[in-house]
UniProtKB/TrEMBL annotation:
<protein>
    <recommendedName>
        <fullName>DNA 3'-5' helicase</fullName>
        <ecNumber>5.6.2.4</ecNumber>
    </recommendedName>
</protein>
<dbReference type="GO" id="GO:0005524">
    <property type="term" value="F:ATP binding"/>
</dbReference>
<dbReference type="GO" id="GO:0016787">
    <property type="term" value="F:hydrolase activity"/>
</dbReference>
<dbReference type="GO" id="GO:0003677">
    <property type="term" value="F:DNA binding"/>
</dbReference>
<dbReference type="InterPro" id="IPR013986">
    <property type="entry name" value="DExx_box_DNA_helicase_dom_sf"/>
</dbReference>
<feature type="binding site">
    <location>
        <begin position="32"/>
        <end position="39"/>
    </location>
    <ligand>
        <name>ATP</name>
    </ligand>
</feature>
<keyword id="KW-0378">Hydrolase</keyword>
<dbReference type="Pfam" id="PF13361">
    <property type="entry name" value="UvrD_C"/>
</dbReference>
<dbReference type="GO" id="GO:0043138">
    <property type="term" value="F:3'-5' DNA helicase activity"/>
</dbReference>
<keyword id="KW-0238">DNA-binding</keyword>
<dbReference type="InterPro" id="IPR027417">
    <property type="entry name" value="P-loop_NTPase"/>
</dbReference>
<dbReference type="InterPro" id="IPR000212">
    <property type="entry name" value="DNA_helicase_UvrD/REP"/>
</dbReference>
<keyword id="KW-0547">Nucleotide-binding</keyword>
<keyword id="KW-0347">Helicase</keyword>
<keyword id="KW-0067">ATP-binding</keyword>
<feature type="domain" description="UvrD-like helicase ATP-binding">
    <location>
        <begin position="11"/>
        <end position="286"/>
    </location>
</feature>
<comment type="similarity">
    <text>Belongs to the helicase family. UvrD subfamily.</text>
</comment>
C-alpha cells in the first residue's frame, strides 16, 4: 500500500528513533521525556498503520487520558492525509470500554447493554458510595471526599492486589459498592473497565471480533493509567493478539492518587515481545529550561534540546508580600510577554491547586482587562451529548468563518480547519441514537442533511451569536431531547437543559460552546495537571511557596503532611509545569502567603524551588 506525500514528509522529518518506532512491525513501548515527540510519533504511527498495514475495513483504537487529547490526536491523524474517518477510534479508556466492548458485545455474552439512565454520573456515584460508607460504619468522613481512594481500592480489588495498606472499612465499602452496582444493573466509570477486562478474558469470540476490527491498539500517557487498564492491554495483547504501541514517561506520572502507577509502563517495556525505545531530544524547550526542570525533579536524565535551539530563559521573581504581589507580578509578566509580540494563547499561568492564589490572580487579570481563560470556569456539562453539541458549535463557527472569508483565505481555512467534519458529526449523532435505542434515521441522507441545516452558514450564526438561540435550533432540528430522555448515560439526561441554563445565565456565545475556539486570543490559566501534554512559549508559575507546593493532603478528616510517595508525585507535577515552556519560564517566590481565612503562613519559598537552586548552583548560598 502507498504512503501519502504528507505522511512521507512527516516520516522524513522524524528522528531516526521516532521513525523506527513508527515503522516497527510489532509491539512498541516508547518511553521519553517531555517535548520529545511522543505524541507526534504516536500520530505518525496511527497514520502509517492505517495507510499501509491494515485493510480499509479495519481500524486503529487509540486510548488517551482525556477527551480533549483524544480529539486532538484524531484531528492530527486526519490532517496527515490519511483516509481515517470511521477507522480511527480515539477515546478515553472508559469510553473505549463502554462503547467498543460493553455496548458492542454485551449481546454476545448473554448480558444486555446499559439501558436508559444506567450509566451513573458523578452525583449518583457519590450517593451510592455514601450509602456503602454508611453501611460499613464509616461516619467520620463524607464519601464524596474519598472517591479517589475508593477508586484505588476498587482497582486493587480488580487486580487482586494486596489490600493491607487500606482501611478495612473502606475496603468493605468498596466491595459493597461493587455488589450494589450489579444488583441494580448499573455501571459507573470504574466498572466499565473491570467488566470490559472480564469480557475480553472470558469470551474468545469477542477477542476475535475485537482483533479483526482493531488489529492495532495505541495507548498514550501509559504512566497515568492504572492496573486495570494494564490488565486490559495485556488481555488484548496476549489473548486477542492485538499489536500494542504504548507511549509514556514515568517522570510525568501524576495520577497516583487514583491508583495510576508508572510501574506498569516499566513492566510493559521489560517484556521480550515489545521493542523498548527511548528518545533523548527535547524539541520543545531550550537547554536551560530542560536543565532546570531536571534539577527540580532531582533526577539527571541528561536530555538535550534540539540542535540550534536557543537556551531559553529561566527566571526567578521574588516578591516581598503575599499572594496579591504574586498576582501583580504575574500580570506584569503577561503584559511584558504580549508587548514582545507573544500571542496570548501562547502564554500560560499555571497554579498548583485552587485557593486564594487563584482568586487573586483571577481578580488581577480581570482588573487589568487581560483577556484570559480559566480552565474550570463555566465548565460545560460533561457527557457525550454535551460534547456532540460542542463539536457541532465548533463546526458552525468554522462554517461561518469560511463562508465569510475571501476566496484565497477560504482555501487556506478549509485546509487548516480543526473543526469536526460533517461525516464525523453524522456518525456521532447516529451512535448517540443507537445508544439511546432509538430507531435509525429514515434515510442515509437524513442525518447529514438535518445536520447541515443546523450548521448552515446561511443561518448566520457567527462566533459572537448568542449560544442559546443556536442551541434551541440544534435541539429541535435533530430532536436531541429524544436522545437525552432515552440515553443510558446519566450524564446525558439533563445535559441539554444544563447547557441551555448556562447559555442563559452566563450569556454564552456560540464560540463559548465551540470547543477549543475560545482559547484563541486568551491567556490560559490552568492547574499543573490540566497543562499536561500541552506547550506554551511562556509559562508563569506564581505562588511557589512552601505550603502551597508542596502542600498538605486532605485525608478525608483532616489535613496531614504528604507521604514520601505523595511528595514525589507533587514534585513531578511541578516538573510537568516547568516543562511546558518553550522559551521562558518564570517562577515567583516570596516570604509566605495568607490563607482564605486570613492567616499569614510565613513558610518561605517552596522546598522544590530551593532544592532546584541548590542542585543548579551547589556552590552558592541559597
Ligand atoms: N523530530 C522532530 N523534529 C522537530 N520537532 C519535533 C520532532 N518531534 C516532535 N517535535 C515537536 O516537539 C514538540 C513536542 O512534541 P510532542 O508534543 O509530541 O512531545 P511529547 O513527548 O508528547 O511531550 P509531553 O510528554 O511533554 O506532552 C511539538 O511541537 C512537536 O511538533
Amino acid at each position: 500500500m502507498q504512503v501519502s506525500d504528507t505522511l512521507l514528509a512527516e516520516l522524513d522529518s522524524l528522528h531516526p528513533r521516532q521513525r523506527t518506532a513508527v515503522l516497527h512491525d510489532g509491539n512498541v513501548v516508547l518511553r521519553a521525556g517531555p517535548g520529545s515527540g511522543k505524541t507526534r510519533t504516536l500520530v505518525a504511527r496511527i497514520a502509517y498503520v492505517l495507510q499501509t498495514q491494515i485493510s480499509a475495513f479495519r481500524g486503529v483504537a487509540c486510548i488517551t487520558y482525556t477527551n480533549a487529547a483524544a480529539e486532538e490526536i484524531r484531528r492530527r491523524v486526519l490532517r496527515s492525509g490519511v483516509r481515517a474517518e470511521g477507522r480511527i477510534t480515539c477515546s478515553t479508556v472508559h469510553a473505549f470500554c463502554l462503547n467498543e466492548i460493553l455496548r458492542a458485545f454485551a449481546h454476545l455474552t448473554g448480558q444486555s447493554a446499559p439501558q436508559a439512565g444506567q450509566v451513573l454520573n458523578k452525583t449518583a456515584t457519590e450517593a451510592l458510595l455514601q450509602r456503602c460508607f454508611d453501611q460499613a460504619g464509616i461516619a467520620e468522613v463524607l464519601a464524596q471526599h474519598r472517591v479517589p481512594q475508593s477508586t484505588r481500592i476498587r482497582r486493587a480489588l480488580a487486580c487482586n492486589e494486596n489490600l493491607d495498606s487500606f482501611d478495612p472499612r473502606e475496603v468493605q465499602a468498596a466491595r459493597l459498592y461493587e455488589e450494589q452496582l450489579i444488583l441494580r444493573g448499573e455501571i459507573d466509570f470504574e466498572a466499565m473497565v473491570t467488566r470490559a477486562v472480564h469480557i475480553v478474558r472470558e469470551h474468545a469470540h469477542v477477542r476475535d471480533l475485537l482483533r479483526s476490527r482493531f488489529p492495532h491498539l495505541v495507548v498514550d500517557e501509559y504512566q497515568d493509567l492504572g492496573g486495570v487498564l494494564h490488565e486490559l492491554v495485556l488481555a488484548l495483547r496476549d489473548l486477542a493478539g492485538i499489536t500494542v504501541f504504548a507511549v509514556g514517561d514515568t517522570d510525568q506520572s501524576v495520577y497516583g492518587f487514583t491508583g495510576a502507577d508508572a510501574k506498569y509502563l516499566t513492566e510493559l517495556a521489560g517484556r521480550a515481545d515489545f521493542l523498548d525505545l527511548e528518545l533523548e531530544v527535547n524539541y520543545r524547550s531550550g537547554q536551560d529550561i530542560i536543565t532546570a526542570a531536571e534539577a527540580a525533579l532531582g533526577l539527571s536524565r541528561g536530555r538535550l534540546a534540539r540542535e540550534g535551539a536557543p537556551p531559553g530563559d529561566v527566571n526567578l521573581e521574588q516578591v516581598e508580600g503575599g499572594l496579591a504581589d504574586h498576582a501583580r507580578v504575574t500580570c506584569d509578566l503577561v503584559e511584558q510577554a504580549q508587548n514582545k509580540g507573544i500571542s496570548p494563547e501562547r502564554i500560560a499561568i499555571l497554579y498548583p491547586a485552587r485557593g486564594r492564589l487563584l482568586d487573586d490572580v483571577r481578580s488581577e487579570l480581570t482588573r487589568r482587562k487581560l483577556d484570559f481563560r480559566h480552565e474550570g470556569d463555566d465548565k460545560l456539562p460533561t457527557g457525550s451529548l454535551s460534547r456532540f453539541v460542542q463539536r457541532c458549535a465548533s463546526r458552525a463557527v468554522t462554517n461561518y468563518q469560511i463562508h465569510t472569508a475571501s476566496g484565497a483565505d477560504r482555501a487556506d481555512m478549509l485546509r487548516r480547519t480543526q473543526a469536526p467534519s460533517l461525516a464525523s458529526l453524522a456518525r456521532a449523532f447516529t451512535t448517540l441514537r443507537t445508544e439511546a435505542q432509538l430507531a435509525p434515521s429514515p434515510s442515509r441522507l437524513f442525518v447529514p442533511r438535518a445536520l447541515q441545516l443546523c450548521l448552515d452558514p446561511e443561518e448566520l450564526y457567527p462566533a459572537e451569536a448568542p449560544a442559546l438561540a443556536w442551541l434551541e435550533h440544534l435541539r429541535a432540528g435533530l430532536a436531541l431531547d429524544e436522545i437525552a430522555a432515552r440515553h443510558p448515560d446519566q450524564d446525558n439526561t439533563s445535559s441539554l437543559d444544563d447547557l441551555a441554563g448556562l447559555c442563559r445565565s452566563k450569556d454564552l456565545l456560540l464560540q463559548d460552546l465551540a470547543r477549543g475556539e475560545e482559547v484563541i486570543g486568551k491567556v490560559l490559566l490552568a492547574t499543573y495537571h490540566a497543562a499536561k501534554g500541552r506547550e506554551f512559549d511562556t509559562v508563569i508559575l506564581p505562588g511557589l511557596l512552601q505550603g502551597l507546593i508542596p502542600r498538605d493532603v486532605h485525608s478525608g478528616k483532616q489535613w496531614r503532611k504528604p507521604t514520601e510517595t505523595e511528595l514525589a508525585e507533587q514534585r513531578r507535577t511541578f516538573y510537568v509545569a516547568l516543562t511546558r515552556a518553550e522559551s521562558t519560564v518564570t517562577m515567583i517566590v516570596g516570604p509566605g502567603y495568607e490563607t482564605r481565612n486570613g492567616y499569614w503562613m510565613s513558610l518561605g519559598p517552596s522546598a522544590f524551588v530551593i532544592e532546584m537552586a541548590r542542585r543548579l548552583f551547589p556552590d552558592e548560598q541559597t
